[in-house]
Amino acid sequence: MDTARTHQKVPIPVEDRRACLGPDGTVALVTRCLRLISGRWKLPILFRLYADEVLRSSQMLRDIPGVSQKMLTQHLRELEEDRLIVRSDFGEQPPRVEYRLTDRGQALMPVLLAARQFADDHKA
């Protein structure tokens, strides 16, 4: 008996396995979503930007305990690269840079809030 045949537990017809396991299947899409939010500081950044529409990095440094300037900058750049946030540089002296969620980032928030609710409903 082959115990590695977990794909048979997925409730889809056998001929439609690629819909779940193929390169553009369910597993690949969910993995892509999880990659967008993987990283220790990405979720705190996203939730802070969801709570306050516009934030400067100095405010995020104060609001997110334990994050270093280096890690905050790295995660902000990754979120910007994934088009979940937008960076607005006003070209002023002293420098003034603000961050906000994009429409794509806003669309992700109901998924994250549902995950939060699921975790709250299913405490260990």
Question: β content, as a range?
Answer: 5-15%
Assembly state of the chains shown: single chain
Query: CATH homologous superfamily of the domain at 40-124, by name?
Result: Winged helix-like DNA-binding domain superfamily/Winged helix DNA-binding domain
- Summarize the helix and strand pattern as letters: HHHHHEEH
Query: How many β-strands, per DSSP?
Result: 2
Per CATH, the class of the domain at 40-124 reads Mainly Alpha
Structure commentary:
InterPro entries: HTH_HxlR, WH-like_DNA-bd_sf, WH_DNA-bd_sf. The chain has 124 residues and is mainly α. The chain has a domain at 40-124: Winged helix-like DNA-binding domain superfamily/Winged helix DNA-binding domain (Arc Repressor Mutant, subunit A, Orthogonal Bundle), CATH 1.10.10.10. It is built from six helices and two strands, in the order αααααββα. It has helices spanning 18-21, 26-37, 42-51, 57-63, 69-81, 103-121; strands at residues 85-89, 97-101. It has a two-stranded antiparallel ribbon with strand order 1-2. The longest helix has 19 residues, at 103-121. The protein is elongated, with a radius of gyration of 19 Å.
